[in-house]
Amino acid sequence: MGCGVNLLDARSKLGAALAPVEDTDPVVLVDLVDALEPPALMLGWGEPWLQPQSACLRTGRLVVTAVAGRLVPGAGIEALEELVEYTLDTLKADDGPWALDSVSGPRVFTLSNINYLAARITLRVPITGGP
Question: What CATH number corresponds to the domain at position 61?
Fold first, then answer.
């Protein structure tokens, strides 16, 4: 991947790094969706999206929204912890430029009027190209 990832390729390359290998691995959603079946990893951009680093390199913030399940009383937090750990371990094993920036605490994530238990994993990624 060199010293950076092209802006137009960043989400798809992250999606490939997180792609399911086993039947029990979470589905990876590279594009915006209006419905999902947990567990799922939804990829998008964070804030700030891009910050200048040099004349041809920027720091981008990619976000993996780890969706463990519908928000119901019970063991949802443990499932979310396992999903976050799976994501971090998978990225560590990949040779891509996926530097961890932060992981949010558990939060309600609403999609199509359904509440899910989720966490946001923010990655710092060197980006080439773009605005």
Answer: 3.30.70
